[in-house]
Amino acid sequence: MAESSSKEPKQEAAKARYDDFALYYATNGENGAKAARDAGYAKNSAAQTARHLLSIPYVQEQIMLNRQELRSQADVTADELRQKFRRNDMLAIARKDLGASNRALELLGKTAGLLSDKVIHEDAKTEEIKEAERAEVEAEAQARVIQITRATA
């Protein structure tokens, strides 16, 4: 029995570091090496450690739970973001600030899935839903281009 109690602190310490890694990973843009360093793992082998940790089911589950919690704590939904970007675009056009308008449109496009910094593989049903959103955003973007053209003319 003394043997199992001597292993428990090590297991608890490992679990705590796993939890730390999972939290850092979920909150830092999914940079595994940085999450490993922030969780106290060796700097020189952080990338290798991260790959190993990401293969552990417990760590994967903790990352998923952290993501869910972060999403539930978010103050805005995707629809609210789109509304704010549309409002920012309109304000930028009123100020004749094309840079700000373009940035608002870029962010609007990204939230609708039109623009992405990553390659995303989706199934056909998801693609149909995204296509409807894309059509809506494209129509809005065309209307904005006309407004910008008129505002700057």
Explain what you see.
- With 153 residues, the chain is mostly helical.
- It folds into two domains: 8-73, Arc Repressor Mutant, subunit A (Orthogonal Bundle); 78-152.
- It has helices spanning 2-27, 32-38, 46-54, 57-73, 78-94, 98-111, 124-152.
- The protein is elongated, with a radius of gyration of 22 Å.
- Residues 1-9 have low confidence and may be disordered.
Structural descriptors:
single chain; 153 residues; mainly alpha; Arc Repressor Mutant, subunit A; 2 domains; 7 helices; 78% helix; elongated; disordered N terminus
> Termini distance?
84 Å
pLDDT below 50 for ≥5 consecutive residues: which ranges? 1-9
User: Major beta sheet, specifics?
Assistant: none
Number of helices: 7
Mean pLDDT: 79
Q: What is the number of domains? A: 2
Q: Would you report the number of β strands?
A: 0
Quaternary form: single chain
Order of helices and strands: HHHHHHH
Shape: elongated
* Approximate helicity band: over 70%
Category by helix and strand content: mainly alpha
Radius of gyration: 22 Å
Strand percentage, roughly? under 5%
